[in-house]
Amino acid sequence: CRHGGLCLADGSCLCSKGYEGERCQHATCYPKCKNGGECLQPGKCRCPPGYGGRYCHKVSCEGGCQNGGECVSVNGVVKCLCASGWTGSRCQEAICPQGCRNNGACVAPGICSCPAGWVGRACHLAVCKLPCQHGGKCIAPNVCRCRLPYSGPQCTKKRKE
After folding, report:
1. Of 30, 29, 31, 36, whose CA–CA distance to 76 is shortest?
2. Keyword set for this entry (predicted)?
């Protein structure tokens, strides 16, 4: 008899607490292991992927959920349920509904980090260090689109007719 079980005269075993089976070879867990977990020793379960806790009763997302995401089981599939403004398998990617243009990066819900020379909620406004003159418009970092009859880097040269 295994695990401290007593061998009886008829050859059967009287198992010690926490074990069962013909030779006391199987550990028993009370409560039973949940979600397909396997009892390794009394009170200790080996849990399948996606579950944790002493009796495999807790849903467990690999690597955890970030940014306020919650680990849930939906139809047997364990996944992160993301808080508003976040997406990705672990809720690690921010959502910027307005988009981030000109190689800007979405760093938090609705917030873009813009590269040098660009500003605005969507990194859509160019910055010209020297302002465009005579109604010219800044269309890219330090690039003006001039109105006729003006030209030049800041639209200061008047074309002769």
Report:
1. 36
2. Disulfide bond, EGF-like domain, Repeat, Signal
Neighbours of 107 (CB within 10 A): 11
Q: What is the C-alpha separation between 58 and 64, in angstroms, rounded? A: 13
Q: Which two tokens stand for residue 31?
A: 């409560």
In tens, the pLDDT along 85-141 reads 999 999 999 999 999 999 999 999 999 999 999 999 999 999 999 999 999 999 999
What the block records as the tokens of 148 is 């006729």
Which pTM value belongs to this model? 0.59
Strand, coil or helix: what is 161?
A: coil
pLDDT tens-digit series, residues 6-28: 999 999 999 999 899 999 998 99
- The two tokens of residue 39 are 């009892």
DSSP state of 50: T
CB contact set of 13 (below 8 Å; sequence gap of 6+): 1, 5, 6, 7, 22, 23, 24
